[in-house]
Amino acid sequence: MKKLSMISAFILSTILCVSNVSAEGLGVYASNWDPKEGGDVWGVGLHFRGGEDLLYYEIRATYFEDISEDTGLVTNDFEVIPVDVGLGLQYAVTEALNIYGGGGLSYYFLDSQIGSFDDEVGYYYQIGADVKLNEGFGLFAEAVFRQVEGTVENGLTDLDNLDNLEYEDSIQIDLDGLAVIVGMMFSW
After folding, report:
1. Strand positions, DSSP E, the chain
2. pLDDT of 146-170, one tens digit each?
């Protein structure tokens, strides 16, 4: 809950800081991410996007819960909250249809039920399209490739009755993978 509050405060302060820049709107979305390790997972997020002509910028945060990684002895569930800041190019195909592609940096807030994660920095690439249905509302869809790796430190030392077993002090987790995003954009 503490991380979710920190993310909310970060997003709100970022939006307030860039409010003088031309903006297209605020989006809410659902995302399905399939990281290399951890399995297919659904998440929800907020997306702030703006720009002019061919160039756009974006800030987004997505909450993914219950990503599971089987470490051999136990299954570790963890949460991932990527906060993305990126730039890209956009092209208006028609007045209502816009296509875009870009990328950026991500800061991954990681939390594990067993052991501890350090938060990580990664990056992402995306392609997408949005359709304006009226002046203040539209839909968008994106394909996002995320790249990040993390390490669970002392992942099994928190468990009881494992004194006689051999295990690694840290476990490397690879979260590279494709995410599909669909959402609604509210423009002003």
Report:
1. 23-35, 41-52, 55-70, 75-92, 97-112, 116-117, 120-134, 137-147, 149-153, 170-174, 177-187
2. 999 877 666 544 444 445 444 456 6
pTM of the predicted structure, to 2 decimals: 0.76
Class of residue 84 by CB neighbours under 10 A (exposed 0-12, middle 13-18, buried 19+):
buried
- Domain containing 179: what range? 2-16+25-187
Report the C-alpha gap between 30 and 50 in whole angstroms.
20
CA 13 – CA 45 distance, rounded (Å): 16
Residue 159: strand, helix, or coil = coil
Q: What is the CATH number of the domain that holds 73?
A: 2.40.160.20
Residue 128's identity, in one-letter code, is: G
Q: How confident is the model at residue 139 (pLDDT cuts 50, 70, 90)?
A: very high
Token look-up 């430190």 returns: 153
List pLDDT tens digits, range 83-105: 999 999 999 999 999 999 999 99
Name the β-bridge partners of 170.
153
Q: Answer yes or no: are the C-beta atoms of 57 and 50 closer than 8 Å.
A: yes
Domain total for the chain?
Answer: 1
**What span, in angstroms and rounded, lies between the C-alpha atoms of 139 and 186?**
9
